[in-house]
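Supplementary Note 2. Why include the ligand at all?

Several targets in our set were suspected to adopt different conformations when bound, so apo predictions alone were not considered sufficient. For every target with a known small-molecule partner we therefore ran a joint prediction. The input for fe (ii) ion is given below.
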Amino acid sequence: MAGSTQTTHDRLLDYCSGWSSDIGDLSDENAHIAYFRQELPRLLLDLPLVRSLLSDIRAGAAYPDIRKTGFFENEILLYIDDRRRFSLRLYFHAGGEYTVIHDHNAWGVSGVTSGRLGVVWYRLEGKGPEGRDAAEGGAPDPARLVRIDRRILSAGEVTVTRPLAPGIHQTGNPDALPNMMLTVYGRPARRLYIHEYDPVTFRAFRRYPPRIRKQRFASEVMKALDGPPEP
Ligand SMILES: [Fe+2]
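The joint prediction is reproduced in token form.
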């Protein structure tokens, strides 16, 4: 198909369906991560496609569907592999803004299409109340959160995030102009929430996607309708 007649969706599908086909030959998730470290920069630096994606978002086009969000309100889902081996998601960071400190349920490979991407990594130290080591994914509330690294990446450079506690991080924008981050995530762990952390008290909070949050509320209000249990 001639490039000029393709929609943004077609052009992104070209990338993503090619990725779906390529990773079928790879043995494990480490090979998937290595593959996306190599391949995601090509998409990040495809500025004609990046521009048409931004233009479609600005116009409220049918694709991408900006009403669909995941864990974060600045997130847009672009693609999910039909075997759920990876997804491609987009995030905006305002100038000078960083996300809350959080973890993820899957590995991720991330980079920005313009400007620079700031990433700060943390390590949980100490024992959770259940006695499991916090870094192993045990309840992390009283653990200490130690900043272990900070990096600034140029457009087209990518960084890898590990799942759960070993990948606790913030992403953001060290510059004044807004940026757009694209992340490929691997297959998520079976956890309906991610953790976010208070940077002062190190308390952990569960963040649910809005859809799950509404379902949980509905379930709780249904129980409340019946009133407190009989003494
Ligand atoms: Fe993140």
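Residues 3-225 form a domain with the Jelly Rolls fold (CATH 2.60.120.10). The chain has a mean pLDDT of 89. Comparable summaries for the other entries are listed in the accompanying table.
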